[in-house]
Design a protein that fits this description.
It contains ten helices and 21 strands. By secondary structure, the chain is of the alpha/beta class. Helix 6 links the parallel strand 12 and strand 13. The N and C termini lie far apart (about 55 Å).
Length: about 375
């Protein structure tokens, strides 16, 4: 529930975590109440892309950077049709944005889209709390929604958890659409939308790929109706353990041997399709400065992440799967979490992070070229 007000900056607000920790500040964006999973993002730039990333559906994002909103909001950097975060937490919002593309303030955009936020709290203390205790349910309350602390805590503890949540169909397109190739068309790719970001088909289009974006409910028959040279599975929100339908579709693609590429949720889907399990991380990886090693080259990339679940696969051995041998191709250097998988006997691979990253970094953009190479090899 949200209500709009132009005096939000002066309205008291309360953030309540499910373990009873409480932070008090001022309303930012819409006034009202909201619930979700509290997570923190370490990015110092790209807040507009973060807000509009469908993978953040039903999450309350805590920005670790102290100053947010400095460049305002423009009409070009949206990654999807709307803001998907369920709540937003900042320490010091910009009073006056300054950027030649800015059209309105971040506060105004949050208000217009009904996103309840809070500012003026110690986000470093909140981040440290989440690092120690883990991501957890949270509520933000402002205006008439503020009640006694015990009442607010009870409401937070009644909210649904992220574990077991099946959310991809809630954020995906309901109708297929096509992103045309830029320049000469070289390949056709069927992209299963589980929460796709706008930059992803753009990165493929830059490489001469015509991208047919399909709903999360697409069947194997729908995928092959576009006569694809390759198949892509996108990022998205929720628990991969609930994604039985995309797993079934991916297995159909693997059986046919079509070149396959998955990002983030798509990596978890590939893990499940190969027979590996998935698990929830304590607080996840979110932000644009995560070090990942590509084991196929030995290079270390600085990468953009947004995931709270990971694949449970052996790091240092080749695994036998129903589709041949598979191995972990990428690993996070902070905590040894699986960041990529590849099949050795079929043209399929995936990564847990975001190589399309806007606003950056772009160390991993080569992965789209690797996908192109798989399709070229298959065609040859």
């Amino acid at each position: 529930m949200t209500t709009s007000t132009r005096g939000a900056a002066r309205t008291p607000a309360v953030l309540v975590l499910e373990d009873g920790r409480i932070f008090r500040g001022r309303a930012y964006g819409a006034v009202g109440e909201t619930f979700g999973e509290a997570v923190f993002s370490t990015g110092m730039t790209g807040y507009q892309e973060t807000l509009t990333d469908p993978s953040y559906h039903r999450q309350v994002v805590v920005m670790t950077a102290p100053h947010v909103g400095n460049t305002g909001v423009n009409d070009e950097d949206m990654e999807s049709r709307k803001i998907w975060v369920s709540g937003y937490v900042v320490r010091d919002p910009a009073r006056v944005p300054s950027n030649w593309r800015s059209r309105r303030t971040l506060d105004e955009e949050l208000d217009a889209q009904g996103v309840v936020g809070i500012s003026g709290i110690d986000t470093r203390a909140l981040t440290r709390h989440l690092r120690e205790r883990g991501a957890m349910r949270v509520g933000i309350f402002s205006g008439d929604a503020v009640r006694e602390d015990s009442v607010l805590l009870a409401r937070v503890q009644e909210a649904p958890q992220m574990k077991g949540a099946n959310l991809s169909a809630e954020v995906a397109t309901t109708e297929p659409y096509v992103v045309p190739a830029i320049g000469e068309k070289k390949f056709t790719v069927a992209a299963v939308d589980l929460g796709i970001k706008g930059m992803t088909p753009h990165r493929m289009a830059e490489r001469g790929i015509e991208v047919h974006v399909l709903p999360a409910t697409a069947t194997v028959e729908d995928v092959y109706a576009v006569n694809p040279d390759g198949v892509f599975f996108s990022n998205g929100p929720g628990d991969p353990a609930t994604a039985d339908h995309p797993v079934s579709v991916m297995r159909g693609v693997l059986e046919r041997g079509t070149p396959l590429f998955g990002i983030c949720f798509g990596n978890q889907i590939l893990g499940r399709a190969l027979g590996f399990g998935t698990f929830k991380l304590k607080y996840g990886h979110r932000g644009i400065n995560q070090p990942v090693q590509d084991r196929t080259t030995g290079k270390v990339e600085v990468t953009a992440h947004n995931h709270g679940f990971a694949v449970d696969a052996p790091l240092d051995q080749v695994s036998e799967t129903p589709f041949g041998r598979a191995e972990v191709s990428h690993v996070c250097l902070n905590d040894n979490v699986v960041e990529g998988l590849q099949l050795l006997d079929r043209p399929a691979f995936s990564v847990q992070y975001h190589p399309e990253a806007a606003a950056g970094p772009h160390d991993a953009a080569y992965l789209f070229d690797r996908f192109v190479s798989l399709m070229e090899g298959q065609r040859a």
